[in-house]
Queue: 3 jobs
Job 1
Amino acid sequence: VVAAGEDPELDGPKSVRETILATDRARNIITGLLTGLGALLVVCCGWLCDPTREQRWLAVALAMTLAAAVLLHARGYEDRTHATILAVSAVAVVMVVTLRFALQLHSAAAVLAACAVLVLVPVAGLILASVVPNTIYNPAFKLTVEWVGYALFFASFPLAFWLMGVFAAIRYRS
């Protein structure tokens, strides 16, 4: 047991030292993996959502489904650093897709919609960040949020197959 704000001293049995070092290593590995996942998610969703493609709404639906699933998954981490990495990457997906549409479509409606999204998403995030930690939720609500997160993860597969044309290939195979 260590007083708040002090670093733990590695005195004591060898097994305690090894456990502390292994825990720190595992935390660093998980942080690196989540950072890589977040960066990959942002880059891939930004590349996927091409506003000039035929079914651009499907690509945006897939990107937003993945972003929402990652955001809901972030609440399951005890470590705030890990949850923050996933939450920031989910919000970055929305921002990157919005900026790509605004820059490539060159229309007043697209720019106004992008400005609205770029203002409303951080405002909604700030409101949720101030309300959610101060609220005690009942177990039924927590379970519902968990199931919605699972449903979003599972919904990404049919959306991806539809976007890749797998369903059309199966339907029209000869």
Job 2
Amino acid sequence: ALHRSVSADRVIDAVWATASAVSPRKLLANTITKCRRALGTEHLPVAQDNRYSIGPDVATDLELFDARIAAAAQASPTEAVAILRGALDLVRGPIFEYPGTERDSYAWVAVENWISSWELKVTTAAQRAADLCLDLGAAVDAADIGERMLRVVPTHPGLTEILMRAHATNGDRTAMQRVYQAHVKALEQLDLDTVAESTAALYERLRAG
């Protein structure tokens, strides 16, 4: 669905990279048949020239996300917040998360940089939405965005800064300090001892009032 059209060999290499007791070609054919039975031929047409494609009515959350980001860029601040929050609602957990036991079948996710590129898109949209909320005097909404997206990208400095600013704007310095301390602890657990300079500087400014 993410590639729209792909060769049979590419699917086999991506999904069944390790040796299988079953012929890869037969495994692919059997799997596609099951998927087609569930989805319908209009959504998963018969392969043409050894390539599999998805039908024109099939969409992914990634396409919907991009469309909403584009729409938000043309909207007023208030409308943009609603549209951006709609885009962020599509993000329901860590980007491209999959079970560790199925790592071999998802090697293509790392090879094609899907995680890093989409984490950047998501965090950029979240920061934009939260900034607009703060500008509109909706610090509670900004905090909600920061908290939800930090569960997706836990150590992101920009999201941490947004959440600290939101709590400070709400007059909750205790919550602001708690966010910063949680950020430091998360970095330590990853053996990343250095807090971003902007994050540390913001914390000192907010703590000083």
Job 3
Amino acid sequence: TVAVNGIINTTESVPVGNTVVDITGTNNVQKMTGTDGLYDMSNLQSGGNYLLRPHKNIEPLNGVNALDIVRLQRHLLFLDLLNTPYKLIAADVNNDKTINALDIVILQRLQLRLIDSFPNNESWRFVPQAYNFTTSNPLTENFPETITYNPINSNMSNQNFFGIKIGDLNGSANPSDLTGNFGDVRGGGDTVKLKIKSNYSL
């Protein structure tokens, strides 16, 4: 038999806990990462074909706050572009391969608790850390979210993934989802300025 192991981190190297990791094929194994982000699949049949996939679809409000909406607005206005492929993936909240005003509307509705999940998307997406994006727009790429072994003949270490929290554009998500207190997080030191136009006079 052989084994597969690795770690799931954010792009800031913070471990992502409570992530289900499945390996399916000749035989099936499922593990869940702890707060260290580690997983270890053992007793896999050597010479078998397997598909490795992490998935996590809980607490969509984790890391989603007003600052993310402002950040997305600034990106769409070309004032402060999101500059990594992982942030662009996080900004495409409805997974329609484009970033537009509809993504802002969905984040607003989620914050107001008018919806309780991302349409056509999960709370977290995962990309193998070994993958190198080939274009400036990852949404146009068929980037992998799994690792395939056809076949597997030896132990496979460092099968690592980046975890991407959908809707979190300022890195405020709790990667282990332990507090359950989401939706009202504010980034330390950040200020949001609002202009209100009124037709009334005092």
